[in-house]
Amino acid sequence: MSWDDAPVPPAGTLITVAPTGAESAKADVPNLPVTLAELVEEARRCEAAGAAVVHVHLRDADARPTLDVAVARDAVAALREQTDLVVQLSTGGAVGDPEDARVEVLDALPDAASLTCGTVNFGSDVFVNRWPFMLRLYRRMQELGVVPEFELFDLGHVAGMSRLLDECGPPPGGHVHCDLVMGVPGGMPGTAAALVSAVAALPPAATFSATGVGRTALPVALAALAAGGHLRVGMEDTLTFARGVPVRDNSQLVERAAQLAALAGRPALSTTDARAMLGVRQRTAVPAAATREDRP
Ligand code: KMH
Ligand code: ZN
C-alpha cells in the first residue's frame, strides 16, 4: 500500500470562459463584451490567461441578444482566425428565444454548442427546454458534427442528459462533457453538496465542468476542482470579483481560475489537449506554429 494508490484525477483543468451571456445589459455593465471586436479581444486575452473554450452569446448592433446565423458565422470565423479556442455557441440564447432560431444557429458550424437538458425556473422567468426540442437539437448536432456541451441547471437535467444519450446514442466525437450551472434562482444551489450529488449521477465516462452564478462562483469552483472537475468562469455568470468589487474583465476571472487549477495540481489544459478531451476536431487549417503552446 502506498499513499499514491488513490485514484488519479484528470491531469489538467479545462477552463471555459463565458464572456457575455444574454442576461446583462451593456448599459448596466459597460465592460461587457458585446461587439465582435470586443468579443474577439476578450477571447484573445482569456486564451492567454488559460482558457481553452469560449462559450459565445451574440449581440446585435444595439447590444441586444441575437441568434442571427449571419452574426454567428462572423463570430465563429473571427474567433477561429484570431484564437485557437474551441468555439462553443450557445443554443440557449436568451429566455424566450424561439426554438427554430435556437436550432438554426448551429448552421454557423461552431466546434461545439450548448444543449440544456431540461426546463428550469430562471429568476422570475422560465427557461423552456421541452423534451422534443432537446431531441431535435441533439439530432441536429449529430448531423452537423457539432460537439454538445450538456448544460445541467438542476439534478433532473442529469437524467435528461442520460435519456438523450440512451435514445440517440453518443455525441459527435464520442465523449460526453457537461457543465453544471449552479446557483441560478430556480435551479440547483451553488453548494458542494449539490455538486457532489450531481456528479454522482453522471454517466461513468462523462467529464464535467461547473460554474456558480453570482456569489456562488468561488465555492463552486473549489468544489469542482476537489471533485476532479473542470471550470467555467466569465461575466455571463459573475459580475463581482470579490465582495463589493466589480469584475474588471473576463481575463481576470480566467486568471483566477488558472491559479486555482494550478494550486489543485491540475493546471489549465492547452487548446490542443482540450480538443482531444472533448472529441472536437483538431484545427487542421491552422498551422501548428499558431497554437497556444507554440506562441511566444
Ligand atoms: N441565457 C440562458 C437563458 C446556454 O447558453 O445554453 C441560457 C443559457 C444556456 O445561457
Ligand atoms: Zn450561456
Helix content: 25-40%
Structural class: alpha/beta
- Rg (CA only): 18 Å
How much strand? 15-25%
Q: Quick one: overall form?
A: globular
Tally the helices.
Answer: 9
Whole-number mean pLDDT: 94
Topology:
Layout (H helix, E strand, L loop, with lengths): L14 E3 L18 H14 L3 E4 L1 E2 L5 E2 L2 H14 L3 E4 L9 H6 L7 E5 L3 E3 L2 E3 L3 H14 L2 E6 L2 H14 L8 E6 L9 H9 L6 E6 L4 H10 L3 E4 L6 E3 L2 E2 L3 H14 L7 H8 L18
Parallel strand pairs: 1-2, 1-12, 2-5, 5-6, 6-9, 9-10, 10-11, 11-12
Antiparallel strand pairs: 3-4, 7-8, 13-14
Bound molecules: (5S)-5-amino-3-OXO-hexanoic acid and zinc ion.
Explain what the structure shows.
It is a single chain. By secondary structure, the chain is an alpha/beta fold. It has helices at 36-49, 69-82, 99-104, 131-144, 155-168, 192-200, 217-226, 250-263, 271-278; strands spanning 15-17, 53-56, 58-59, 65-66, 86-89, 112-116, 120-122, 125-127, 147-152, 177-182, 207-212, 230-233, 240-242, 245-246. Strands 1-2-5-6-9-10-11-12 form an eight-stranded parallel beta barrel, surrounded by eight helices. The chain is globular. It binds (5S)-5-amino-3-OXO-hexanoic acid and zinc ion. Zinc ion binds at residues 18, 21, 55, 57, 90, 92, 114, 236.
Features:
binds zinc ion, disordered C terminus, 14 strands, binds (5S)-5-amino-3-OXO-hexanoic acid, 8-stranded parallel beta barrel, 296 residues, alpha/beta, single chain, 9 helices, two-stranded antiparallel sheet, globular
